[in-house]
């Protein structure tokens, strides 16, 4: 007879798996590197948020504030006889004295207010100098230098595109009654932030030797720093009376 096999099949599971190895403790160097890496990641996130705040959110807030102030100025100008708009805007108006237009720098109108402190400029406006050299406002009719400053980045960044301005380009200052049309004749791409001579009534560094009706735009440079100053000079070429429709001069059309 043929031999028979057992009814139960033998299973060989092989040798038992060794127990998991105990986790080794991290050495002090590895632990320090891990903590340092986490700190770098946290610092990077904080820095990123700060950049977003500085270069985007401050622009949103400043533009909103500038628009509100600009509306107040234009509303004042539009008032009829007997209202505040019946006379010229005060040079010391807290709402602003007029609007700067520099089409090659920006397509926006820029409200001009008194002073160049951070409190003023952070509202997304340009400010005329009262210190260390006092600006001569064109509305005074006197010869001198209408010197202005504004931020180049953050807080509205109204002079961000100042590097686009070239000699011969127009700069226009708009008041309630008059358009003041200037022509750019000088540009200083970099100078010390302590160089106040660029604000002088006769800005000799621009090449001028005699008194005249000048305008000066100043802002920080390079972009995103405040190490130096960028300067643009212009000279008044003519004025135009504002008509009932506030038709802009041909340089702005």
TrEMBL record:
InterPro entries: Sortase, Sortase_Class_E, Sortase_dom-sf, Sortase_E. Residues 1-24 are annotated as: Disordered. Residues 1-10 have a biased composition (Acidic residues). The chain crosses the membrane at residues 29-56. The active site is at residues 151, 220. Coiled coil: none annotated. Gene3D superfamilies: Sortase. It comes from the Bacteria. Keywords: Hydrolase, Membrane, Transmembrane, Transmembrane helix. One of its GO terms (molecular function) is hydrolase activity. Pfam families: Sortase. This is LPXTG-site transpeptidase (Sortase) family protein.
